[in-house]
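Morning run. Coffee first, then this:
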Amino acid sequence: MRAEMAQAAADFKARWNTVPGLAVVRAGEDPASVSYARQIAKAFEAAGMAFQLHTLPDSASQQEIVALVAQLSADPAVHGIMVQEPLPKGVDGVAVVAALSVAKDVDGVHPENAGRLLQDAGDYFVPATPAGGMEILRRYQVALKGAQAVVVGRSNIVGKPMACLLLHQHATVTICHSRTVDLGAVTRQADILVAAVGKARIITGDMIKPGAVVIDFGMNRDSGAMVGDVDFESAAAVAGYITPVPGGTGPMTNVMLLQNTLRAAEQLLNR
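And here it is:
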């Protein structure tokens, strides 16, 4: 997919004499956000696409952040915008997202994109992380129609959109979370098990149906190591397919961000 994106970016540049590009906004120096921005920058550079990082101090006011997002939304040289979390204390994330151009919302966080995803209506951007999970399922030709899918996690950027995407492909979807009673009794019913709850190794091998497909979106630090929401060793002994952490859904998130930015650029220039 990286090769596909690089070719698509080259074709786009030849057609429009413009380099498609993403602007990332960050307030503060949260270590995970800093690392993620660095990874995105490398992915965009490798694909021949433009990347801008706009940083504000942790002391930045809501007004300053909103003004920056509004400025980038109005800038024709910027095709996609992503606002990194966490935002500084006291900053209303809803107000920040409201300043974001729907047409440049390449991580699908604006309520209009989220609403269109829920309804599967019109043109919309899907958050890059669940979009990457769905692309893994598609590329490995995992049958979704009629399958029992269990999504563990209910965040607005992973769990909920992933559940919607699975529903759109005619899977039967159950949403669980960290407070689900007897979680294992539910997850053992899953043909497709999605872990997106943000708790290290909360899913163990005895909670997985033999042969199930396991998509692990977890990114947790445990004794200095990066681990998923799934205990990989015990799960891999049971699952039919399983994504590793690191190296599984994480790289796919960056690829889907490339894809969404390319699509946003195409749509903006075709207006």
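Residues 2-102 form a domain with the Rossmann fold fold (CATH 3.40.50.10860). Good start to the day.
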